[in-house]
Amino acid sequence: MRMRKKKHLEERLEACRENQIPLCEHEADFRKAADKPCYLNFKELFGNDNPVHLEVGCGKGQFVCELAKRTPDINYIAVEVCDDVALLACEAAKSQNLKNVKFMICGAEFLLKYFEDNSVERLYLNFSCPYPKNTYKNRRLTATRYLEIYKRILVNGGEIHQKTDNMHFFEFSIEKLSCTGYKLKNISLDLHNSDFEGNIVTEYESRFSAQGLPIYRLEAVNVKEN
After folding, report:
1. For 34, which DSSP code?
2. Would you list the domain boundaries of the chain?
3. pLDDT at res. 27
4. What is the C-alpha separation between 153 and 176, in angstroms, rounded?
5. What is the CA radius of gyration of the chain?
6. For residue 99, what pLDDT is reported?
7. How confident is the model at residue 1 (pLDDT cuts 50, 70, 90)?
8. CATH topology of domain 50-222
9. Is pLDDT above 60 for 59?
10. Parallel, antiparallel, or unpaired: how do β-strands 75-79 and 101-104 relate?
């Protein structure tokens, strides 16, 4: 179900401008996005040299805001393609006065325009749309075209952490991650009944768990060829 257009969207986004990363104009064709890079200067954005973690598809920002509070020595950038949803994430960060999290309103296919190679230490994929129809499988955020992007911007040894409630999407992700050269570890087929500590429960996660659905989780290490 699509979210209703927020009232006074532009004015509210402007009020949260300090929580957003302004984007350069880019080609509509994502395949040309990296031809004219507009790389982010993390030190300028955050005022420090702390490591940078990235969440792709942050939704309303519950996960990344909680993470930013728990680990103030990490800088977080959260990407969300829907401006109405990103607005809620920006307002959440602003209300909590979080200085170590910034938001980008764009699709994951444009990441190479803004992130240099080997610049991100960890990437989170929480309850991404599974696009269950096989004809839309290339839109999944663990499709090969996206994993190749993540492989470039992640440092060698950097990690992808994924959570989902969809078993078929999880199996798809495991296959694609393995084929793209990531090393899998800490795979859980029922996160909430495992011994994993430190889990941050997202809004979707609470909903799915309440329905008795298992939560699937994995970590994938980026292994780059020498």
Report:
1. G
2. 50-222
3. 61
4. 18
5. 17
6. 96
7. very low
8. Rossmann fold (3.40.50)
9. yes
10. parallel
3 state DSSP class of 73 = coil
Half-sphere exposure of 214 (CA within 13 A, CB side): 12
pLDDT tens-digit series, residues 174-202:
999 999 999 999 999 999 999 999 999 98
Span 39-59, average pLDDT:
97
What was the pLDDT predicted at 129? 95
Q: What distance, in Å, lies between the first and last C-alpha atoms of the chain?
A: 45
Amino acid in the structure at residue 149: I
Integer CA distances (angstroms), 170 to 62, 174, 225, in order: 22, 6, 25
182 SS3 class: strand
Q: Are 180 and 151 in contact (CB under 8 A)?
A: yes
CA torsion angle 185 53 107 200 (round to 10) = 70
User: What is the spatial distance between Cα 99 and Cα 47, in angstroms, rounded to a whole number?
Assistant: 10
In this structure, what token pair is assigned to residue 131? 């696009």
Q: Distance between CA atoms of 83 and 111, rounded to whole angstroms? A: 17
Q: Are 77 and 104 in contact (CB under 8 A)?
A: yes
**Cβ–Cβ contacts within 10 Å for residue 112, how many?**
20
pLDDT confidence band for 203 (50 / 70 / 90):
confident
pLDDT at position 70 over 90: yes
pLDDT at 3 over 60: no
- What is the distance of C-alpha 200 from the center of its chain? 14
